[in-house]
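lol ok so funny story. i was supposed to be doing the assay writeup but got distracted and ended up predicting the structure for this chain instead. priorities right. anyway since i did it might as well share w the group, maybe its usefull for someone
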Amino acid sequence: MTQTSENVTWLTQEAYNKLKDELEYLTGPARTEIAAKIAAAREEGDLRENGGYHAAKEEQGKQELRVRQLTQLLENAQVGEAPASADGAVAPGMVVTIAFDGDEGDTMTFLLASREYASADIETYSPQSPLGAGVIGHKVGEDAEYELPNGKKASVRILKADPYSA
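and the output, tada:
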């Protein structure tokens, strides 16, 4: 199966297993628990003014949203170390150091990956974020541009891009 690097989420085996366990819990025991809460609240009478019923239905909706998110994430996951970029270009799974507006005194280093791959040691930006999308494909020494939330453009220079190692 061929996927573009923008659709792939790189996960360590540990992160994949943790997310898979969460999905199994949410689609098994958690669904049973929430169904029991809804049934118990329904027995209390008038549903229009039944706070417990509405809270349980809201919780059910949040659980089902998380199930859909996890399912999609795991379908697009690649387990293991992200491959080194053969052409030296920034790709998901890399630790990237940038300089804002080319000013090497104003730098930031981050992991370009899904939040689920995040490490407590380093800030993480999604490849779909404005900054992430702006730097993907650029090589060390190149300038990249991305759009800020206010609609203005910002430029950065790629100073370093190395494969992430936990």
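Strands lie at 9-11, 77-79, 94-100, 107-112, 124-125, 143-147, 153-163. The radius of gyration is 21 Å.
back to the writeup now i swear
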